[in-house]
Amino acid sequence: MGTDVSPAWIAVDWGSSNLRAWAMDESGEALARADSERGMLSLTPAEYEPTLLEAIGAWLPRTGKLPVLVCGMAGARQGWREAAYLPVPTRLDGLARGAVRPPLNDPRLEVRLLPGLCQRRDADGRTFDVMRGEETQLAGLVARESGFSGLACLPGTHAKWARLEAGAVTRFETFLSGELYRLLASQSVLRHSLGEDDLDAPGCREAFVAAVREAEAAPEAFSARLFGLRAQDLLDDTLPTGDARGTHLMARLSGLVIGLELAGVREALATLQPVTLIGSEALCARYALALQALGHAAQRLDGSAAVLAGLELAHASLSD
Amino acid sequence: MGTDVSPAWIAVDWGSSNLRAWAMDESGEALARADSERGMLSLTPAEYEPTLLEAIGAWLPRTGKLPVLVCGMAGARQGWREAAYLPVPTRLDGLARGAVRPPLNDPRLEVRLLPGLCQRRDADGRTFDVMRGEETQLAGLVARESGFSGLACLPGTHAKWARLEAGAVTRFETFLSGELYRLLASQSVLRHSLGEDDLDAPGCREAFVAAVREAEAAPEAFSARLFGLRAQDLLDDTLPTGDARGTHLMARLSGLVIGLELAGVREALATLQPVTLIGSEALCARYALALQALGHAAQRLDGSAAVLAGLELAHASLSD
User: How far out from the chain centre does Cα B122 lie?
Assistant: First the structure.
């Protein structure tokens, strides 16, 4: 991060537990990147500006203002300043219209916090839901293909599935999958039977795929199949022994949790193809495998590339 | 617990976290009760006998042997001594045939550990499952009605549903409901939105019942509805405010978890009526309310009465 970086603006993805910033030139190219481990969960409102300056101070001009566009939890009610959720349907090329400006001390900063999206319960089957940060990754899809329509999935702690029509999010659902998986693996009675998470271990892809199919076909049995992992550990002579046993059962747990999630989007999957997965390579590969097991095609967009493209789209819309 | 108690035998329910013992006379009446907070999770094999003597020592005769019949986790592999699972179908009046005798130092003790039940995956849709302790409560049903047939539910951390035919368990399933509920309420992102568990609070029974119906009707949406509790907290203007808000959402969480469980036994519920609930008054009342919401009748058998009747049945079968 040299002082020779002179960006036209700064793109920031500021989440619950960290911050990623990019120094951007006018053409939308990232000149440099800065990270911080300080996210919304560890910051009071007054600490955001110093934290930002610490991360990107070297990029600031001697004079004049540098635009900084921020997506993510920094715009939450418990963040820097609240950027109120935009209700769906929302066109993703218009996110910047809902941006708010936090109070600042440094005259060289011009910060905008992008809003998240919300959804209320309605007669069409939508339920209460919120996202903050993921909407900018979805905007990245629209940045790459104006007027994008289709089904997108952002796997993770709280996995989001969004339907896009002509560049707008029309409906979305969040699944607690990542959190369920982590809690069950580390805190429940199942922890005694579970081992390493490694789908590349012998037989584990097959175990994962079988569990995906089971849970998708019979979501009502989810809670019983969870306990079944424990019982299978105690009873099943066909399972591998030693460490491989726990690895096998861990693959099954992952498959059950993702299979339940896929049962929840069965209707959307039946009509909207392929699914665009946005996220890390490993997690998207796991979801692609699960989708493939159910006969669905998937394509991947890198999570960092998506958020950067989304912030770029929002930045461009400011100058329109 | 006076020294004037001279029981004919001792009934013991020895679980993961505690021990309950009853001094029994020949007619099957409990003369006295003793408790200990030392269960399987806190005991090494060598510690069982001293722990038992501490609890029931005052009841031991000066000479002769006192039979002690134990059900529960004391008979697990990681307990006092393993009493191997009996595979279903198993007649519940024959549990004592699978009992094992642990090594003892005190010549006045004659201890038998009752076995649990296990189930293997088969073509009829059974899956791997185990129970240890609950089979004795189910035996209590048979003790009260010889040749009992029907559907029984033992709600709790790991809720068991068992089908009985002519006094035998033919099939059972365990749901991780209680543990899921506790983990989600205390460890997940939902904890920020949840409050007291109190179905007697205004509107909470209705919220619970609505959530039971939602989850039973659409189990595939379970994981999304969990996150929906968080989103509802952020967005729903019709919810009560203050502490009542968290209490309302807690009732919904309980309803979602129990509703998912009831979806899992939908087929059995359609043909086997009424359900016999075995357990504490409060938890059985909650399950009865959930069942009633779906049009199913329930009756209750107290958990302690059930285990005692089951141990009595096992004791009687020893003298046959």
Answer: 25
CA atoms of A42 and A153, how far apart (whole Å): 28
ipTM: 0.92
- Of residues B85, B118, B173, nearest to A224 (C-beta): B173
The helix (H) or strand (E) run that includes residue B312 is: helix B303-318
Q: How far apart are the first and last CA of chain A?
A: 31
**Residue B223 is nearest to which of A220, A228, A260, comparing CB atoms?**
A260
| CA–CA min distance B61, chain A (Å) | 39
| Contacts of A97 by beta carbon, 8 Å cutoff, 6+ apart | A317
B187 CB near a chain A CB, below 8 Å?
A: yes
The rounded radius of gyration (Å) of the Cα atoms in chain A is: 21
Interface of B with A in 222-261 (CB under 8 A): 222-228, 230-232, 234-236, 257, 260-261
- Say if pTM beats, i.e. exceeds, 0.90: yes
What residue of B is the nearest CA neighbor of A158?
B227
**Given CB atoms, is A126 within the 8 Å cutoff of chain B?**
no
Domains and CATH numbers, chain A: 9-132 (3.30.420.300), 177-301 (3.30.420.310)
Give the whole-angstrom CA distance, residue B320 versus residue B318: 6
pLDDT tens sequence across A170-184: 999 999 999 999 999
What's the confidence (pLDDT) of residue A25? Answer: 94
Nearest-angstrom CA–CA distance, B42 and A133: 46
Minimum-distance CB partner of A188 among B183, B188, B231? B183
Greatest Cα pair distance, chain A, in angstroms, is 72
- Residue B231 with chain A: CB contacts under 8 Å: 118-119, 127-130, 174
Let me know if A254 is exposed, middle or buried by CB neighbors in 10 A (0-12, 13-18, 19+).
Answer: buried
**pLDDT for the residue numbered B5:** 84
